[in-house]
Write a structure and sequence with these properties.
The chain has 288 residues and is of the alpha/beta class. The protein has a single domain, classed as Ribonuclease Z/Hydroxyacylglutathione hydrolase-like (Metallo-beta-lactamase, Chain A). The protein contains 6 helices and 15 strands. It has helices at residues 48-59, 98-109, 183-194, 222-228, 238-249, 258-265, and strands spanning 5-11, 16-22, 28-32, 35-39, 44-46, 63-68, 77-78, 91-95, 124-126, 131-134, 137-143, 152-156, 159-161, 202-204, 219-221. The protein has a 6-stranded mixed β-sheet, with helices on one face. Strand 10 and strand 11 (137-143) form a beta hairpin. Helix 3 (183-194) crosses helix 5 (238-249). The chain starts with a strand and ends in a 23-residue tail after the last helix.
C-alpha cells in the first residue's frame, strides 16, 4: 500500500495543529483544520499561519481538493475560505451535524442576516461513514461527537485525524462542557469508534498543550491511547470517565477566543456581511 505524506503546522498561540495530507504520486491533497490568526486586543486578522501552509502546497506543487474541518472550533478562527483566493476549486467540508451547532449558537449571537442554520456556508456536508474522494485520496468520515455534537474524525489510509475528541496520551480528551457537549457521547465515540480501529492506526491530534513544557507531540496510535491515555484507557469504565470529565470541565475557563471563533466558524470561515461602512463586525453578548 502506498503511503500518504502528512505535514503538520503548529500555531503556538492557540496550540493548534493544521495538517496537509497528500499522495506523493498524484500530489492530490487535503488540508485539515487551518488557522486564521486573530488578535483579540486589536481585533486584527492575520494570515501568517495560513501562509506557511500555502507556501508548502506551492513548493511541493500539491493539488488541494478540500479543506476538512473536524468541527466548529472554539479556540481559533478557521482560514478555510481564504484558500479559495489561491486555489479556486478547493471546497470546504464538515460533518453534516454542523447544523445542530449553528442552531445552538444562532440565538446566542442573535444573528439576523447573512446566516441560516442549514449548513449552506459549507460546500460539502459529510455523512457518518461517507468516503470523500479527493483525487486519489479517500477520506472516510467517522462521527465522534462529545466535545461538540458535530465533531468528526477523518480516516485517510492508516491515519486518523481526531480533532478535539482525543489528545496525546498525557493530555487526555477534549472538554465536553460546550452547548450540547456530552461526556457520555465522547466516551462512546472514543471507545466505540476510535478504539475499535486497529491498534496500529496512527492518530494525529488537533491540539497539543505541551504539558510540563515538553516538546511538541502530535502523533500517537490507537494502541498507545488505549494503554496510556491519562483520562480514558481501553479498560476505563464509562461511569468513571463521565464523573471525571464533568468534574474537570467544571474547573475550566472558557477559551479566550470562544466568541469570535464560533461566529466565524459556524459560517465556514466567512466573515459576517460588511455593514454600511464596509467593515464586518463581531458581537459580544453581555451577561449580568
Amino acid at each position: 500500500m502506498k503511503k500518504i505524506h502528512i505535514q503538520h503546522f503548529f500555531d503556538s498561540a492557540t496550540s493548534t495543529l493544521t495538517y496537509v495530507v497528500h499522495d506523493p504520486e498524484t500530489l492530490d491533497a487535503v488540508i485539515i483544520d487551518p488557522v486564521w490568526n486573530y488578535g483579540p486586543g486589536s481585533s486584527k486578522l492575520s494570515t501568517s499561519s495560513m501562509e506557511k501552509v500555502v507556501m508548502y502546497l506551492n513548493e511541493h506543487q500539491l493539488k488541494p481538493h478540500f479543506v476538512m474541518e473536524t468541527h466548529a472550533h472554539a479556540d481559533h478562527l478557521s482560514s478555510s475560505q481564504l484558500f479559495k483566493n489561491i486555489f479556486p476549486n478547493i471546497r470546504v467540508a464538515i460533518g453534516e451535524r454542523i447544523t445542530e451547532v449553528q442552531k445552538l449558537f444562532n440565538p446566542v449571537f442573535n444573528i439576523t442576516k447573512d446566516f441560516n442554520t442549514f449548513g449552506i456556508h459549507f460546500d460539502v456536508l459529510l455523512k457518518d461513514g461517507e468516503v470523500l474522494n479527493a483525487g486519489s485520496l479517500r477520506v472516510k468520515t467517522l462521527f465522534t461527537p462529545g466535545h461538540t455534537p458535530a465533531c468528526s474524525s477523518y480516516l485517510i489510509d492508516d491515519a486518523l485525524f481526531t480533532g478535539d475528541a482525543i489528545f496525546m496520551p498525557d493530555s487526555g480528551t477534549g472538554r465536553c462542557d460546550f452547548p450540547a457537549g456530552s461526556a457520555e457521547a465522547l466516551f462512546d465515540s472514543i471507545t466505540n469508534r476510535i478504539y475499535t480501529l486497529p491498534d496500529s492506526t496512527r492518530i494525529f491530534v488537533c491540539h497539543d498543550y505541551q504539558p510540563e513544557g515538553r516538546d511538541l507531540r502530535f502523533e500517537t496510535t490507537v494502541g498507545e491511547e488505549k494503554e496510556k491515555n491519562i483520562q480514558l484507557k481501553g479498560e476505563t469504565k464509562k461511569e468513571e470517565f463521565v464523573e471525571f470529565r464533568k468534574a474537570r470541565d467544571a474547573t475550566l475557563s472558557a477559551p479566550k477566543l470562544l466568541l469570535p471563533s464560533i461566529q466565524i466558524n459556524i459560517r465556514a470561515g466567512h466573515l459576517p456581511e460588511p455593514e454600511g461602512n464596509g467593515i464586518s463586525y463581531l458581537k459580544l453578548p453581555l451577561r449580568q
